[in-house]
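Would you mind writing out a protein's amino acid sequence and the numbers that encode its backbone to help me picture the idea?
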Amino acid sequence: MVREAGVGRLVDEEAAEGTVVVNNEFFSLFPAAPPQLLYRFIEQTLQPGPAVSLKCIAAGTPTPHITWALDGFPLPHSHRLVKGQYVSAEGDVISHVNISSVHVADGGAYTCTAANSAGEASHVARLNVYGPPQVRPMGQQTAVAGRTFIIACPASGHPIHSITWIKDGSPLPRNYRQRVLANGTLVVQEVTRGADDGRYSCTASSRSGRSDTQSLQLRVLVPPSLAPLTFPKGTRAGMQIRATCLVQEGDQPVRYAWTKDARPLDARLGVRTSQLDAFTSILVIERAAAEHSGNYTCTASNAAAASATTARLTVNVPPTWVVEPSSTSVALGGSLALHCLARGFPDPVVTWRRQAASGEFVGVVEGTGSGESSIVQWKNGTLWIGRSARGHEGRYLCEAGNGVPPGLSKLIDITVNEPPWFRATEQRQEVRVGGTATLTCHAHGDAPLTLTWSKDAVSLSPLPRYQVAQHEEQDQGGTISKLVVTDAHLEDSGTFSCTASNTHGVRTSQLHLLVQDVPGPPSGIEVVEMGPQHLVLTWTSPEDSNAPITAYIITLEPQSPSAGAGAAREERVGGHERRLVLKDLTPATRYNLRVAAENRVGRGRSSSPVLGSTEEQPPSAPPRDVRVMAVSSSALRVSWEPPPHNSTHGTCLVTTWDISWPAHTPITLWFFGLSTPKAQDQLHHQLLLSP
């Protein structure tokens, strides 16, 4: 099955695995590997009669083919000799020669040769068959003049004592060019017509005096000898070209073949070849073009060999545009690549020039400018501006020439457009509530330049407090628009966008306005823990006023009248605190507690007061003026005055106590400073009473 595989390509799906057919030719899909002989037959010596099998196994890519020879000649045809070859499952080629009943005439040097497109490998071993010498016919042979002629004497029989050669009745060798090797092979170097052609005889002899002789007729062929192929120098496009392939020596008939760059001549090139006579072939190109340049080879072949001569044709072609430059514009600060590409032979040289103030065109100096703003001409002719500036505007000339007239040139204009831009694309401004903020937008770019304002991506509200003024800046250039926000409110905080636009683009600058106020009162004021001399207070931060809280001020004021004016005190904690332990307080005292927040704008209002009370604790002094009165013979009344007020730490519950006990019994009294049922006795006064 053959299916299409692209333009001009056919693939044979039934071809051997690992190959494809393209334009009716087989190609391997795998890397080529020269053959290797995996198995070789060995030399054998035997009597006539038995069967003999010679085998070679080879592997390679593509699959190699194995051929056989006997003493350098093809195997003789015989019903006793059978050749076979097949490919194993592993891809190895197995070839064999089977001789059913060996004869003396079957002896000699057998060669198996495995070959593929990547190379070849050979193995030679003798099959010796006992018997008298026999020489197989050699027929007519040819040799190529100037080369070496080698032929083996195809002798069989065993043992062979000697092999000799004669030419035209004279034993060989007769000169330095002739040699007879020990195995009977004849070697003739630098074969010459007239001296080496003729009749040669080979005689094989045994020690017993038996011998056999066969002859061959050698014909010396002269290969073609070609004069050097040449093309005229300085060939330009449009000229006519002729080249002559001249055979100076060689046997006829001679066949001629022309190739370009090792391929047959393409009919589309319009190249003609013709044979003037038996010794001359010419190549004609009516009108030379760039595609005619290349290496041309004339190959002349005859029955002897093939000879070739090669010459390089170079067609000089004037420049033609591949990429013609054109006028262009670029945004200020943008990059620009001006392509000016021409082809021809030799390769054209591209040069850029710029029109000076005088009107003359001067060379563009590479590196003009600083940093990324410099101009660089690349090797391919492209003019590159990394960061365009106003100074790059003007008229430029691109020239391409290679010494073949006419050259090329093109005038172009570069315009540098300035889209809107800002020196600062982002600003921040802070103002206090009630203050005035002025937001300034300074834009640059080609006129006319339009500036518009928006807030948080929404068009600016038409509020009386928002006023916009715009004017042209004379000193620094550009256009300035100012947005004045009066009587600033917290809700004025946000991102104001100034958008500048012209015919070359749109850019936006963002101005962040932050309206700040003093903090509001903290909330969630709560006393979470009480003790005789401390309170633990917590609170929640107030709403954001666009300024971080730097401190909290806690005010505590005792409600006790005895505290007097000025008894209130304040404590400060950091802005990150949400809890405070108030220490060194008076036991059994009520306090009004307030919390205020402070930021860099100022101190905010205090929270509503929260009441907190410290717990009582035992009096710190004993009762005063303790008095004892007899009530009866077995009872006393004890009375006293409370301790000083500042040491009671609560309310005293008892100031009189009646006591009874048996007569004449001693008693010791302890006076406890009790204030509340919770208070524990820590201080006492002792009174001893005796009858």
